[in-house]
Amino acid sequence: MYRRCRVCEGELREFVDLGRQPTANGFLRPEETDGEYFFRLAAGICTDCAMAQLLDEVPQERRYHGGYRYHASGSAGHRKHFEENALRLLETELTGPDPFIVEIGCNDGVMLSTIARAGVRHLGVEPSTNVAELARARGVDVLTEFFDERTAAGIRSRHGAADVVFGANTICHIAHVASLLRGVDALLAPGGVFVFEEPYLGTITERTAFDQIYDEHVFYFSVTSVRAMAERHGFELVDAERIPLHGGEIRYTLARPGARVPSHAVRELLAEERERGLSDLAALGRFRDRVERVRKDLVTLLRDLRAQGKRVVGYGAPGKSTTVTNYCGIGPDLVPFVCDSTPSKQGHLVPGSHLPVLPPEAFSDPYPDYALLFAWNHADEIMAKERAFRQRGGRWILYVPEVRIV
Ligand code: SAM
Ligand code: TMP
Ligand code: ZN
Predict the structure, then answer these.
(1) I want to staple 183 with a disulfide (CB 3.0 to 4.6 A). Which of 60, 121, 152, 205 is the partner?
(2) Distance from the CA of 126 to the center of ligand 1, in angstroms?
(3) What positions does the domain C-methyltransferase occupy (predicted)?
(4) Which residues line ligand 1 (CB under 6 A)?
(5) What's the whole-number average pLDDT of the chain?
(6) What is the rounded distance in angstroms from the CA atom of residue 8 to the CA atom of residue 6?
(7) At residue 251, does pLDDT exceed 90?
(8) pLDDT digit string (tens) for 360-377?
C-alpha cells in the first residue's frame, strides 16, 4: 500500500474505500472464475500537492495486455470527439514542414487514424497488443510498448523530436509519473506541447461519479495537482479546458516554461477549485457519504423491484460497471445480465460480480421492465438508439449523481 504520494512523496490521506475489487476490464469466461484477482480499491489525497490517487496498485502488465477489452472506437460520440481532436491538432500544432505527433495509449487508433489519413508523421505507443493491431489495421504506426523514459529515448533517436505528445484517458493510468514526464521532456521539441485529457476529480466529487474510481485510474487529476506535477518536472501548465467526455473531463496542455502564455482558464479553474475546497478532506468526506448513500438507495431499489417481480437488466458494461456492481454487491440475482456492444466483452462475465454480458440484441428479447444504465456517460446516444424500450413502457435507472428512474 502507498502511504506516500507517487508525485511528491507527501503524505496520503485515505478518503474513500470501495472494498475488494477485481480489475475493471478483467472480463472473464464463466469457466475462468476460480482464482480471480482482487485488490483493495481505495483512494487518498496528498496533503502536500493535492494529487488524488489509489492507495493500492495493480501491476500495469495485469491491466494492459493482449486481452485488453476497452475499445476506444466503441461509441459514435467518442469517434467524433477524437476526430475533432485530431483535426484541431492538425490545424494548430502540426503545421510545420514535417510535423510529428506521438500518442501515448492510442488504443484502436480512434484519434491517430485521422492523423494517418492526413499523411502526418505519427506514432502510437500502445502496450495492449490486441487493440494496437486494430490501430495498425487503420493505417496507424504503433509501437507496442509501455511509454516511459526508456521508450521515449528510443523514439527520439529513431524519429526525432515530437511537436505534440498526446494522451487521452491514459496519463492518469501511468503510475510511474517521474519516468513518464522525463520521457516527455526527452521527446518534446522546444516549442512542443504535451496535451492530455483525463477524468476530473471535480466531476467525480460533484456528480458522485465514484464509478470512475477503478484499478486503471491510478490518479484523479485536478488543475491544482496537475500544475504542481508539471512544475515539479520542469513544465508549465498553459491551458486547462473542460470537455464533456466520460461525464466531464479536463484537457490539460503543458509546455516548456515561458514558451506559451498561460490561458485565463488555468487561473479561473484554480480559483474555482480553491473556492470549492476540492482537495479538502472535509469535502472529500462528504463525497464518501454521498457514495454510501447511492449504494444504499440503489440496492434498496433493486431489491424492491425484485420483490415486485419486475425484471431489471444492465445496459453497458464499461469498467465503471465493475466498480458499482462490486461495491454495491449487485450480482445476477438482482441484474440477470447486462448488454454491451463490445464483441470481446460478450460471452464473458463482468469481473467480480459475474453479471453475464450479452449482445445488445438480447435487450429487446423481450424488453425488461427497467434498464440499469451503467454506461451513463453515453445516455443520449443509448437512449436514442433504444427509444422503443421507453415507448413500450420501459424505464431507465440512473445512479449518477443520485439514484433515480427516468
Ligand atoms: N486514448 C483512448 C481513449 O481515450 O479512449 C484509449 C484509452 S484506454 C482507457 C487506455 C489505454 O492506455 C489502453 O489502451 C492501454 O493499453 C494504454 N496504456 C496504459 N499504460 C500505458 C503506458 N504506460 N504507455 C502507453 N499506453 C498505455
Ligand atoms: P465507456 O463509458 O468507458 O466509453 O464505455 C461504454 C461501454 O458501453 C462500452 O463497453 C460500450 C458500451 N456501449 C454499448 O453497449 N452501447 C452503446 O450504444 C454505447 C454508446 C456504448
Ligand atoms: Zn503529492
Answers:
(1) 152
(2) 6
(3) 244-401
(4) 60, 64, 68, 70, 72, 78, 104-105, 107, 110, 125-128, 131, 146-147, 168-170, 173-174
(5) 97
(6) 6
(7) yes
(8) 999 999 999 999 999 999
Interatomic CA distance for residues 217 and 197, integer angstroms: 13
Q: Which residue owns the Cα nearest ligand 2 atom 10?
A: 318
Positive or negative CA dihedral for 149, 155, 157, 162? negative
C-alpha cell recorded at residue 377: 456517460
Say if residue 1's pLDDT is above 90: no
Is the distance from CB of 131 to CB of 69 less than 8 angstroms?
no
pTM of the predicted model as reported, rounded to 2 decimal places: 0.96
**Position of cell 464473458?**
348
CA geometry: angle 194, 195, 196, nearest 5 deg: 120
**Beta-carbon neighbour count of residue 244 at 10 Å?**
11
Are 401 and 209 contacting, i.e. CB atoms less than 8 angstroms apart?
yes
The mean per-residue pLDDT over the stretch 201-205 comes to: 98
In 3D space, the residue among 104, 149, 111 whose CA is nearest the CA of residue 125 turns out to be 104
- Residue 247 to residues 36, 88, 374, Cα–Cα distance (Å): 30, 22, 12
Q: Give the pLDDT confidence score for residue 125 in this predicted structure.
A: 98
Task: Please name which of 47, 30, 21 lies closest in space to residue 284, comparing C-alpha atoms.
Answer: 47
Q: What is the pLDDT of residues 98-147, one digit of tens each?
A: 999 999 999 999 999 999 999 999 999 999 999 999 999 999 999 999 99
Q: Which residue's CA is minimally distant from atom 1 of ligand 1?
A: 168
Q: Is the CB of 239 under 6 A from ligand 2?
A: no
Q: Where do we find the cell 505519427? A: 122
Distance in angstroms (rounded) separating the CA atoms of residues 172 and 217: 6
Residue with cell 431499489: 301
User: Quick one: pLDDT at residue 123?
Assistant: 98
Percent of the chain exceeding pLDDT 90 equals 98
What is the pairing mode between strands 12-21 and 142-143? unpaired
- Which of 376, 371, 329, 380 minimizes the C-alpha distance to 350? 329
Distances (CA, A) of 201 to 71, 259, 270: 23, 28, 13
Compute CA 261 distance to the chain's CA centroid, rounded to the nearest angstrom. Answer: 29
Determine the 3-state secondary structure of 199 from DSSP.
Answer: strand
Number of the ligand 1 atom closest to the C-alpha atom of 319: 9
